[in-house]
Write a structure and sequence with these properties.
The structure holds 2 protein chains of 2 kinds.
Chain A: H1 2-10, H2 16-29, H3 31-53, H4 87-122, H5 126-140, H6 143-154, H7 158-185, H8 188-195, H9 200-236, H10 247-256, H11 265-298
Helix pairs in contact in A: 3-4, 3-11, 4-5, 4-7, 4-9, 4-11, 5-7, 6-7, 7-9, 9-10, 9-11, 10-11
Chain B: H1 2-13, H2 24-58, H3 63-68, H4 75-84, H5 91-103, H6 117-152, H7 157-171, H8 174-186, H9 212-249, H10 253-259, H11 264-286, H12 288-301, H13 307-316, H14 320-348, H15 350-353
The chains are: A mainly alpha, B mainly alpha.
Chain lengths: 299, 355
Amino acid sequence: MTAIDQAGLVVARPPRLQALRHFAREFARRPAAMAGLAILVAITVLALTAPLFIHASSLDVINAPGQPISPPSARFPLGTDYAGRSILALLIWGTRPSLAIGVIATGLTMVLGSALGLLAGHYPGATSRVLMAFTDFFLAMPTLPLAIALAAVLGQGDTSITIAIAVTSWPGTARVVRAQTLAVEARPFIERARALGARDSQLVLRQVLPNVAPFILVQGTLTVASAILTETTLTFLGLGNPTDVSWGAIINQAFFQGAVSAGAWWYILPPGFAILIVVLGFTLIGRAIENILNPRIAR
Amino acid sequence: MAGASAPLSAQSLSALEVPPPGGASSARDFTDFLARKLAAALASLAMLLVVGFVIFSVMPSNPVEAITRGHFTSPRQEQFLIRQLGLNQPLWDRFGHFVVNYLHGNLGYSWQFEEPVSTLIAQRLWPTLLLMGSSTILSVLIGMWLGVRSGWRPGSLLDRTSTGAAITFWSMPTFWLGILLLVVLSAGFGPIPSLFPAGGMSTPGSAGGLTPAHVLDVLHYLALPCLTLTLVTFGQYQMIMRSSMVDEAGNPYLLTARAKGLRDAEVRQKHVVPNALLPSVTLIFIQVGTMVSGAITVETVYSWPGLGYLTFQALQIPDLPLLEGCLIVFGASVIVFNLLADLAYRALDPRVRRT
């Protein structure tokens, strides 16, 4: 036992800055990771700068600039929607709510999942068992019906969609964080901190959380991808803000305003591809971070 | 632990050929196991009822307002509704009534269809079972076939294309894929004529019954929704089967089988596939949750008259008792299938039986 402890003390963790540099180098070496990063940077810039080159008035249903459901032309590179608005403009504007809801819902998910995971990992016994039974129940529940029920009761709108996503997607994170908390708490430096008189809150927040944080980051990146998918699904089903321009809303309007019978592929393809690309970007980055972190746990 | 695992893994090699060791102790083990799993499933069902009650009875700040939205209501009518809904009773009593009602199969009364929720759900159950069942069978067959072959030759052309296709379809929004198929194969796109109907379950006005004509008609309507769900879900089976094939392929018993002079296909089908099958078989049951979510959007896109479309219809009002019934039925089915997954795992893997 002491031998292991001493060995553990000898193999000290590298300073955080060095670890970060190592991480950045590994990340840059992976083409998939860099492609994912490029996608996200491009989309984020587009979302932030959209108001600079798209007038909110051109997204108004009443004063739409073009003819309804017309195919791509020089003036409207991706054609127009049921009201005659430019699909390209809608698409670019749609990055804003999709990204915002995805990221905010993920933030909530991470806070909820990490808190429960840390608690369950730190307090073994009855607390842990109850929390994990609770987590497993929500893990098994089908996501969409639960999210639909929540969003329907909370009323149409971005806030209720965000809450519905957070409430249905935290269990995976709670499981990962609990497992990592158990792994970290088995390491000798936790025993040292305890011997020095650290309180539970100090142990969890100052010692365990920083070591678990990379895994929360991985979970977070992957959760954004699934959150955006759930967000578009809920919006497609009509739970979103009806006046908002988002990818889910574009597909909803396309489907319910006769784009299918009109064969308006330009109306249906672009929002789906936008969703695919963003989901792909987050997934690529999440997987890359996971791969960079994994060999270190194995060691 | 290390000492015990050696004979166990030797036994697991012939997991599907040797009859399980019988005897009084294994029978008692099984009863214990079954009792434990049943208790867990019952606890989950109880939890499901609590969640349903909290969402639909505690969270809405004013259910009366939700019902009467858009209609003028006098204070007396409101009082009547409050009494009728039992909102003047303590929360605890309301929960008691709710549980008793659900246990008696009384799931409330739909605001929109003005029919009991249980009747509506019973009507819509079979179309959903048909859709989910057929697409599960198809995606299991396709996914496993591709997984076996791509895991046997990792890096081959088939492996790369099928893994790529599986991941692409899996990350697509289900409803979007459904709409695309609808545009191309139903609305008639470019040179492609309209091959499949756009929605519903059978030609309006057609006589029902089990006549060949009616069965063909339903299959014609089933084709597109089933294809959509299959495309979205086969990737799971492909990926799981592929990785367990790759895991198994490293085992030394393959060398023995080859040394006996078995051909490559025989080694694969007779020795590797049975051992690699386990994770994918249990996945079938666990996938029910994913299928449920997929069914909601696919049924919406194709107006397939099942529980998913019912959920969508309930959502438009929103018809809260109906939504609650759908949530409970979906949740309960997932709990039941998770229980079946545990049982199937035990039936298939002797190692689980020993613990």
